[in-house]
Every structure is written in C-alpha cells, then in structure tokens.
Amino acid sequence: MTPVDVEWVKKNYGLLTEEEVLTFMLDDFRRVYPVYIGPELPISKKTGAQMTVWPGVTFKDGDYSLDGFPLANATMKDIENYICPKVEWFDFSSFSVPPETSKNHTTICGEPFSLLDKAYDLMGMENIMIKMFEAPDLIHALMEKITQSRYDMIKRILETAPWVDIFIITDELGTQESLLMSPEQFREFSFPYHKRLVNLIHSYGKLVYYHSCGCVMPLVPDLVELGIDILDNLQPTAKGNDPWAIKRNFGNKLILHVQVDEQIVMREWKPKDVYSKYRKMIEDLAVGGGFIISTTFRSQDTPRENVEALLQAIRTPLIDN
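Structure tokens predicted for Uroporphyrinogen decarboxylase (URO-D) domain-containing protein (321 residues):
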C-alpha cells in the first residue's frame, strides 16, 4: 500500500498506526530494510526533491517519476566509475534482534531489489532498449554493476537477519498489452543476473518473491526456470494474464500472489459483485495452497463498500469439499 492508501484507511476506519492498517487489511507480510546512514543525500536543484541512495537518481517531488537519468549518455568508463550503494551505507544493528511482528507474520525484505528497473532509472528505458541492440556490452556491464551491489546487500542481510523469510526482487517486464522486451532479450540481459540473486537467497533457505506489473504470461516458464517461489502481481487487466492457467500448469512450483483489479472492479462494481468475483477466485485458486490474494487498491477512487466486500470475501472460511 502507498502512504496515501495507508492514510485513507486510517481516516475512513478510525485507525491510528500503520500496523493497525496492515492488520485491518489482512496483510500477513511485514516489510523490513536496514536504515540508510551513508553520505548525505543531496537535494535536486531541478525539482527540490531529495536524491535516492543511487547517486544521481531523483524522483520528482510527490511521485515516482524520475527527473533525469545519470547514465543516459554513459560510456563504458562512466559505468565502471559509477558508485552503486555500498553495504556500509546502511545500519544493520537493528537486524540483530528480530522485530516483534516476525513472531506472527511473514517477514519480507527488499528495497525492492530490482535489476532491470534500476538500469532504467540510471540510463533511461528507451536508452536501455536501444543499446540492447547497438551496444549490448554496455548493458551487460551496467547489469553486472547493479547485480553486484544487490548481491552484497542481500548477502549481508542473510548473514545478519536469519529471521527474514522472503526477499523481494522486482522488474517491470510488461505493459498492458505485451512484453517490454522479447523472451530472447530477457534471457540474455536479465535471466543470468537474477539467477545469481535467486541462487544466493535459496542457499540460505529463503524464498524469492518476484514482482512485475503488466503482461508476463509469455515469460512464466522462464520465471519458473529462474527458480522464483512467489509470482506477483499477475495484473488482471494486462493482456493474457491468466492465474487459472498458471495454477494448472505451474501450481506445484509457484505461489501466486494475485492483485485485485483496482482499475475497474474495485472502483466501479457493486459490492455484492466484488464479493462474488473474489470469493470465486479464492475458492478456485486456494485449492492445495500456493495462493495469496493482494488487497492492494488505489484509495482515491475506491468506495468504502467495495473495500469491505473484498475483505469479507477473504475472511469467509473455505469449506472443504
């Protein structure tokens, strides 16, 4: 949930803390991440917003869009000289003792740990797509640089916080209509780098939660081969996404984390229809386990009655046949 969503739930249901919101929304995950203590993050002269821990990457104040790409015109030397976030920039002292929430909830960790998405942030998506054809060595160098930074961070967390259950890896692979890149490009420029992180996480007995918005169906077999444990979010309005087909074909290998349709159903349907739709989804896909329904929604356009109908559908116990 975004900060805006959290505040909406607090206001509408008389809740005071984020923990109360998560409990009310039936969220079983609790996210943790070490505190940043590195170099002071400068303020962008262009937007007035604070830069992220990735030098030169700044989100426009108030949203998640970027105001520029520090490696947009990078040479190989520029990539070699770029300083990625370092492990010593973060405080792990709080990780020596598990939080109270870890006793009754699943603990999930991640910034999240994106690879391609971070390459987009650094170089720009259009540049990445072009250079996959014109300068593939440049893209491999950038992916290697990002992957090593992620690897070091994940390894330190694994060593200092054995109570963490799941690690989030995220990359946006699709649009509403199609993949952002061909399966062949995914296998060349993404798969081997993600595989290093997946293997590391699995070597400590932890699970990998992989997120992508948009159309992902053509890449599901590759993601299964990659070794991910949980696939999120199977955006329901994206072309071709079919949780039922994935459950049939890969239900013994994947846990499905399925997003509710926040674009149409949660905003426009009647409460009784919201309840019926998601009750059926739960009854169909929860058979044998391996299914999580996401209660994510965009609060600005969501009627309270529909939020309550969704929660009622989730709370209703399953009846064994």
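The chain has one domain: 33-259.
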